[in-house]
Amino acid sequence: MNLQGRGRLWPLMLLTAVLALIVACMGAEGENTTPDDESGTAQRIDGGDLVVQGNEPDSLDPHWSAFQPDISLQRMLWRGLYTLDENQEVQPAMAAEMPVVSPDGTIYTITLRDGLLWSDGDDLTAEDFVLGIERTCNPDNAGQYQFALTSIVGCDDYAYAEEPTDEEKAELRAAVGVTAIDDTTVEITLANPQPTFPIVLSLWMTFPVPSHLLPDPGEAWPAGPDAPEALAFNGPYVLTEYVPQDHATLAANPNWAAPDGVSPTLDSLTVRFIDDTASANNAYRTDELQFALADTTVLSALISEFGDGDEYFESVRPSTRGLQMNLGREPLDNVDVRLALSQAIDRQALVDVVASGAHQATTSWIPGFVPAGAAPDAFDSCCGFDPDSARQHLADAGYPNGEGFPSGISLLIGDSSEAKDTGAFLQDAFKTHLNIDIKIEAVDGATRADRFYSIDYDLYIGGWAQDYHDPETWVVGLFETGSFINFTNCSNEEIDQLIADNLSNSDNDARLAAYARVNELIVTTVCGVAPFWHENAHYLIKPNVVGMSENANSQDAIQAGDWIAEAWGLSE
């Protein structure tokens, strides 16, 4: 999942078990029975209005989206056939049970739960899930996570069709291997077995479509302001109001199926769109917000002000942030230039200066606690801070002491204090160690997302947060030549071949070894990104808020525990 806004750059590392570090135990009827760290059991009350900080989504369309703010809000409004529990294990959601899989691993038969309804009272049927997959594969929609469905028969043919006629599109759609056998049975056919496919069926690009409202898979998804009236929802909440650049307000879905027994208790949930964490922290101080992302540029002061474990809260998240580079632009198409930039970054100083030590400096893309990942310092000798080597690489690229280096190269950043401080740090590092001048472009979140999607940038502070606990989600779709969410123009024949050879590889040891090699190639050739830290999540949460800190784990997108926002509530 691409990191956008202050979002979920994918946090930190201990052991695999740490992914389940903070887990809520839910009782019947959605009652939260999880003990607080210090104060015993916090009981949710019925009612109340919760206001939290978030980042404005670029789209509400789950079949198109790839960024954290989008996915955070979408998971509050829709849910798929399956979900991941606190241990990242697949569990039935709208499905009645786990899929029945053919002996050769290519045909999945899935039965829906009885009596499913959309928020507007219309029946939720198998055809709605079929249409969700078809929308992601549809070339008119151009779903950014289509790559996750590449193993479904016909999905790639449909998605990559070049200027098909309406008749050809209809034929390609009909050939996609997803069918409603009847109102409660979905059948999905894969071209090849995919060991991780049940996990894919828990992700947003497979969420259902209200086909009674949007029957055409190429039809535009209503924008935020129109969504409350134009859409129906099957998640725990419905959208009641959307004001661009300000907020979204949600209410409990009366037809929420509550597969895990957890239902909203709030009267309303408002997500205020605030990119700048310093502003959000001020709003938290004046009780305008009950949750905010902590401003890591002043983290020590915030911990002193709010108390570690009282209102300040830290969570482990599998995320990597780094300097992303557009390899389609000169001179960034030169590997020596990219290595020079990577080696000019003192990552530990960056963490200490910009983020008050809040994160972990790294040169590895895939964190070490993920299978096939590497230790934070695994590639320091190649790509870590080394000013002399950086200058040599720049000279090898034809720019000794920065002479002749293009003057128009710019760094695109978001409008937050952390982003601005990071940009200033990198600008100074490149001037000090390489004698090159980089311009800073600070823009709002929506503009930043649009320019990243269209690859209209030179340098960019971004990153990735895993969608599930497997190295596949760290590389597939991101680094293959021409892939839908390859927004850096990375192109490496060995990476392409390793990924293609291992999507259906049932030999897990060989598969993991291949992804470990991909991780190495990404970093050592700086194929679109120079990682600089793995991120921890730092939050401010009011003492009477229940279900956020208790459920914070590696599935969080923006807010603590937003993968199960139906558990959020207020206590006495």
Describe the structure in your own words.
By secondary structure, this protein is α+β, with helices and mostly antiparallel strands. It has three domains: 62-71 and 78-220, Dipeptide-binding Protein, Domain 1 (Dipeptide-binding Protein, domain 1); 224-315 and 539-570, D-Maltodextrin-Binding Protein, domain 2; 319-535, Dipeptide-binding Protein, domain 3 (Roll), CATH 3.10.105. The chain is built from 17 helices and 21 strands. The strands form six sheets. Strands 13, 14, 15, 16, 17, 18 and 19 form a seven-stranded mixed beta sheet that branches. Strands 3-12-11-10 form a four-stranded mixed beta sheet. Mean pLDDT is 90; it is low at 4-40.
Helix vs. strand class: alpha+beta
| Biggest sheet record | 7 strands, mixed
CATH third-tier fold name of the largest domain: Dipeptide-binding Protein, domain 3
Radius of gyration: 23 Å
With helices defined by DSSP (H or I, 4 residues minimum), what is the helix count?
17
Shape: globular
Features of this protein?
single chain, 572 residues, alpha+beta, Dipeptide-binding Protein, domain 1, D-Maltodextrin-Binding Protein, domain 2, Dipeptide-binding Protein, domain 3, 3 domains, 7-stranded mixed β-sheet, 4-stranded mixed β-sheet, 17 helices, 21 strands, 27% helix
